[in-house]
Amino acid sequence: MSYITALNTANPSFTISQEQSADFSSHFMGKTKDEKRKIRILQRATGIKNRYTVLEDYTKKENFDFYPNSENLEPFPTTSQRMKVYEKWATKLGVEAARPIIEGREKEITHLITVSCTGMFAPGIDIELLENLGLNSSTQRTSINFMGCYASFNALKVADAFCKAYDAKVLIVGVELCTLHFQKQSDDDNLLANSIFADGAAAVLVEKTPRINTTNLFLKNFYCDLIPKGKQDMAWYIRDTGFEMRLSSYIADILGGEIEEILNKLMAGLNIDKNSDSISQWAVHPGGKKILETLAKKLSMDKSKLDAPFKIWEEYGNMSSVTVLFVLKELLHNKEKYQLKNNQLIPSLAFGPGLTIESALFELVEG
What we know:
Elements: E1 3-10, E2 14-17, H1 18-29, H2 33-45, E3 50-53, H3 79-102, E4 111-116, H4 125-133, E5 140-145, H5 151-165, E6 169-177, H6 188-196, E7 199-207, E8 215-226, E9 234-239, E10 242-247, H7 251-266, E11 283-284, H8 289-298, H9 307-316, H10 323-332, E12 345-352, E13 356-366
Parallel strand pairs: 4-5, 4-6, 11-12
Antiparallel strand pairs: 1-7, 1-8, 2-3, 6-7, 8-13, 9-10, 12-13
């Protein structure tokens, strides 16, 4: 058995409104008046209010620090230049997320799992976190890289396995700096990606037993599956000028067609109905407004059961793998608001390249 006993999140200091994002994107991506108008409509339609970024340039109209101060942003930043910014910020955000949940217990941590799909270097963030947080040098380290928005589930499954095999205390730290990878080509994939992705970090402590006087989440079950027909609709590539996203508008429809069967498999053998009164909220990765609305419709679900994912979407956007952890934190820190009680179940979903769907079933346990 294993439990999430602590969870914390962090964001960069720069906030960008959708209006500022639309100004930046329309100026550098819109070649015609119609293209500029399309960008503004798309950004408004996302339903996002604010996002966070490590790059202050997105809040400016001139005097950029990272992008060239030219009319077309040329010479456009290379992948190398973007990774240097990742190296500067990733550890800082990871430490900010992790330190509060392990303070005073640093030497108890037996395993460290890092998660990121927006940057990498070696010696990497795992070693830098170990040093900056004061963990034992013998702490066992595992890095989960480039898996996309569902990667936190892979980290939780690895942590669960460690806890079942040993008397482990596992620290998971995810850092995603999606805004480093702005692309200026005005195709639909880039228009959508530039309008929704953001930066954030999250840290989770997973232990073999629940912590006393704390709200814990028991890791009750996991299920993973692939939807091959969606393989070309969500993808993530390393290219010369950063990482490039392929993100089709058809993803919501593809997920909607498969989601019920996947949930049935997640809950198989547990005698739980997805519409059970024991489920008051769902921790779904908010990959898009349409995705959340489609899932609610396909599952005949009261939309209020997705209040937390919608809130995170509006206030933070899509921070890739750490976003679902922001949703879980929102639920745990506002139990009364979301009508969460002891032994309540929280189904959770995320999706990414493949088209992969990862799912988990958590049970709230008051220690």
